[in-house]
Amino acid sequence: MVENDRVRLIDASTAYRTAAGWAYGFPELTRNQRHVIKAARYVSNPGCYPTGFISLVRPLTDAGILPKSWPLSVNAVSGYSGGGRKMIEEFEDQGSPNFTQAPYRIYALSLAHKHVPEMKMHGGLEHPPIFEPSVGRYAQGMIVEVPLPLYALPSVPKLRHLHAVLTAAYAGERFVEVAGLEEAASITTLAPESLNGTNSMKLYVFGSDKLQQARLVAVLDNLGKGASGAAVQNLNLMLGLEETAGLVERFDWSTAPGKSLDAAAS
Q1: What pLDDT, in 10s, does the model give residues 60-95?
Q2: Catalytic site residue 77?
Q3: I need a labelling partner for 169 at 20 to 30 A (CA). Which of 58, 92, 179, 212 fits?
Q4: pTM
């Protein structure tokens, strides 16, 4: 439909996320991805689930710690806004024939979810991961998890090795933060809404060296870094603006009138 060489596009659908000629709009994907986006005529905005998954997996496949042929699974929960208008109506519109009061449900039971090709390609994988999405009865915010049996990986890595790779991959990034191992070890629960209203994503390495198991976790706002926030970030890059223009890096709930982090998360 675009017949001139002046118009540049950011597409928010799934149509071009694995298509030739389209730049993938995750600036933190590799050290060169920002330059790719800046120069591109066509940019495909990432999906929210893939953003969390790829952020955890791609550095490990690039580093060779995670074999590209590894049989990965990804477990995730999102607020119902991630399902678009139809799902929002199901949870909010009591007049809808599909209205539900379910607190939680899993879906995409056939495993043929539209995000899987994107996860495979940009995660640097040879096989599609087993994707296990779910939705909770809250509007927005998400947690994406990738479990790893460390004892089965070729190098039998420790938690610190995984953490070091992720930390190096996102060093200096404004919108992606890797929690320290001590911070992760001190956490007993994690709320999917903790970064709502921001374009930030926080990554965690949980697990046990004794059990030789790891639980990699990404927390983000599915409407922020997982959608419109990422689109604005890409737009800024394409226009040569400050990358953070118009974006919230991290909302400080402590300064919000009458709010607290616990209240916000509830």
Answers
A1: 999 999 999 999 999 999 999 988 888 888 888 888
A2: no
A3: 212
A4: 0.91
